[in-house]
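Hi W., the iron/sulfur cluster complex you wanted:
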Amino acid sequence: MSAPPDSARRALLFGRRAPALRPPWALDEADFLDACTRCNACVEHCPEHVLVRGAGGYAVFDPRMGECTFCGECASACEPHALDRSVQREPWHLSASAGDACLPRRGVVCSSCRDACPEQAIAFPLTSRVPAPAIDAARCTGCGACVAACPVDALVLHPRVTEVA
Ligand code: SF4
Ligand code: SF4
Ligand code: SF4
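Structure:
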């Protein structure tokens, strides 16, 4: 008789939670959960300390901790290749967006995210009395620098929407 499926893995695949932000170069979620041994070597090797132990003991990226520099140390440390740069050409498909808590949307001047963005992906078009951030998804790498810099936690990373021809 085959072993029952691991309950942590099953809960993560079929639960109602929002999808976790896995470390860069993670395999697709089901394959990642199969391959990851929860050793947390990636967490320990991240020089920016932006990876944490998440639900079920599986590693997640927490952009509130800071910016991913895409140094690749996490993938290099992953012995079972749950993070694999030869399989995943891009580290991930994430981009940032600002929600209703964003200060300019409440009439308060703020541009902390623009100042933190290493890709110059955030502009403040002069379309209203207090300009609000507009994020260029084509430039955004999902590095999370803006998330950590926002004083009111208004920015989130979400899967990038790809256009179907
Ligand atoms: S190093 Fe690889 S196997 Fe270990 S926790 Fe991180 S992703 Fe999982
Ligand atoms: S690429 Fe570097 S900074 Fe980004 S999560 Fe991996 S180890 Fe951390
Ligand atoms: S996630 Fe990184 S690249 Fe994207 S807007 Fe924020 S700081 Fe810029």
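The chain has two domains: 7-77, 94-159.

W.
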